[in-house]
Recover the amino acids of this structure.
DNA sequence: ACAATAGTGTCTTTTAGACAATATAAA
DNA sequence: TTTATATTGTCTAAAAGACACTATTGT
């Protein structure tokens, strides 16, 4: 009196149970004019019509093979970048965060050098713009819980930065050690001792000296 | 020629779009006989009928208000524990990981003192058992991608342990510093200098001395 | 007294921080 | 030469590691 797994799968009906909506949102970071920014898009449709929101959208189970592919697809649609630094922050899910329905959003964050970005507004979106981050938050009020998501992602980013190479992904290669230190300082919102910073970076043996020099103001460093 | 948000919401039909199945799985850690263990349940139904799997199940949008509540519900059903240490690892989602359908699992991990657990098999489950962790993995092959999930969670746990108080949640209070050190060593799978360990723990000012002593083998510490 | 384990003293090494000193190139 | 910024030297302070030593209690 039992069926095999094959028989079970053949008769499986996914729509027999109520399920949450599932979306992916991406916090896209870049450095513009010596300030950390996040990309947002203006929604063309309800809910939150005309409000600004994180880059994101529904998981398309007919085209996306994985959650990460949903994130990459959204990111590429808007910025043209195919292989960014992309990391999952985590998921938020509740019956309150989206007025339509019980909703889960899996949140990713991406780090892109500004020079590699070619914005493309695409469908379902009125406009795109960059919002400056100050103290880990943006001033403008965004759709859904997206202000909170930015805050949480930025805290995660800050906590990971000091002993990692994440900020590399915000700069176009090659870069000087001073430029790199500036980016660390932007993210952490605090000063770093130049000497200590160099010691750590060179000690980590991730960097490679190019021999090139820069005629910016005075001397020039390596990468 | 446009409708208001209220009108939009009234006519919203969630089932118009295909959506993934959404589940929550919990990696429940506890220390038994000086070994780190993970709780698994034997599935009563297809798919993977009779195979062992992490404690978990579908998000019930009619009863759960948040994703975390789904995790807490599952955890309480099986262990009776109401307020464990619970943290989200993240989500995995793909069209391959569940033979039924495109599936997202949001993975949590929990730390419980073994003494506070009262196992309850409940419905949909044949049996429950603890699997010992060795080198961050369990020997037995589990359903779905659950072996990978345990591995990933354990790595996360290891990376967070050293400068945190997480292992406190695996011990029943009060405990001795030696017991605490043993737990750190179990998780990290390496020896810790007793002197250095005491310095750090007492320096962190999270612990409180009880004055009590233990007649275990010889002398006795504080908490 | 001895064995076993808890806990301390203290020396060495490593790492971070502070900050003065030097180097280079543009104006 | 002056100025601005990059880069180094070096002293100090804090933390981690090593390891021998002392303390307590059951046998």
């Amino acid at each position: 009196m039992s069926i095999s797994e094959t028989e079970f799968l053949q008769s499986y009906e996914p729509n027999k149970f109520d399920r949450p909506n599932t979306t992916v949102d991406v916090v896209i970071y870049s450095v513009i004019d010596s300030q950390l920014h996040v990309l947002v898009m203006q929604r063309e449709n309800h809910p939150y019509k005309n409000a600004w929101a994180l880059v994101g959208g529904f998981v398309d189970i007919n085209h996306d093979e994985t959650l990460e592919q949903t994130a990459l697809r959204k990111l590429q649609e808007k910025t043209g970048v195919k292989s960014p630094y992309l990391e999952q922050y985590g998921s938020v899910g509740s019956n309150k965060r989206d007025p339509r329905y019980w909703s889960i959003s899996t949140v990713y964050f991406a780090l892109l050098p500004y020079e590699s970005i070619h914005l493309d507004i695409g469908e379902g979106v009125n406009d795109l713009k960059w919002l400056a981050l100050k103290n880990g938050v943006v001033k403008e009020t965004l759709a859904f819980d997206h202000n909170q998501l930015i805050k949480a992602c930025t805290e995660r980013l800050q906590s990971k930065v000091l002993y990692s190479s994440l900020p590399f992904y915000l700069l176009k290669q090659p870069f000087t050690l001073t430029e790199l230190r500036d980016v660390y300082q932007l993210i952490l919102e605090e000063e770093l001792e130049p000497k200590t910073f160099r010691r750590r970076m060179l000690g980590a043996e991730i960097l490679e000296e190019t021999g090139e020099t820069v005629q910016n103001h005075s001397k020039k460093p390596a990468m």
About this structure: Residues 84 and 112 of chain B are 6 Å apart (CA to CA). Chain B has a mean pLDDT of 92. Strands of chain B lie at 21-32, 35-43, 52-58, 85-94, 103-111, 125-132.
